[in-house]
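Data card: per-record layout.
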Amino acid sequence: MLAGIGDVAATSLVTLYCHAIETRSDNPILADLHSVEIAAELDKTLSRSSQPLARALVSRTLDKNLVIHIAIRAKKYDAYVREFLDQYPDGIVVNIGCGLDSRFLRVDNGRVIFYDLDLPEIIAIKKGFFKENERYHLVASSVLDYGWMAPVRRHKGPFLFMAEGVFMYLDGDDVRSLVLEIKKTFPGSGLVCEVENSFWLGPLTKKILAYKLQHQCNLGTGAMFRSGIRDSREMEQWESGIQFLDDWSYFDADEKKLGWLRVLRHIGWIRKTQWTVHYRLG
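The structure for this 282-residue chain is written out next.
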């Protein structure tokens, strides 16, 4: 299976298995039984691979802190969707870079229209585990091919766009163009996206980050962070009408499994190493 999946797309497997591992742990942060079922099925294929990532997934030996981080992040992004649907029960949610996540099933209120968007090789796998219906749609496309916006545009909104673990793998100019295109096409929409601090993209620090991705996460060299911002309000400078609403770091979470790491929420530059920003676009 890994032979047909690029390095960036392979991050979706890491996310899925983190969900599965945490769900099976004591006092789980995230309850995602679908991830457990999907991972068990994928094991049959991945167990035949000699690649380090495949071995780590099948053996469930992913870094413990990575598992906790991914689970906390998923729980928070679920909360963002639920808050949006509390205000707009018939809202439209677009999950950019959805991977094999089952967020729609976790947050479905019986009325939301939900689009899962990812690269064709990931959606091809996902279609083996999830069935589309009149409210749930799987879209196979690069997020940078704006054709995916056409079916979403048929709805009146309101809209919430989510990009969990996506933007840092794109070039900065592409991220900016994408955000401005969403703003133009879906004025007044919400955007929740994870970002990397651009400080870590310098020549030396980027090497440290690459080592972490390749050795802690067992990812290939193609899964590199390419862009980031320095401040939560930075996107407001891209064009008038972009409004910063709030931000969140996984150090902010009141989860016992974070342990002493919770104190890092009080150290600004650490809290904003990799974090989430929430905007209104137009």
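Known properties of this structure: Residues 64-87 form the longest helix (24 residues). The chain has a mean pLDDT of 93.

See the next section for split statistics.
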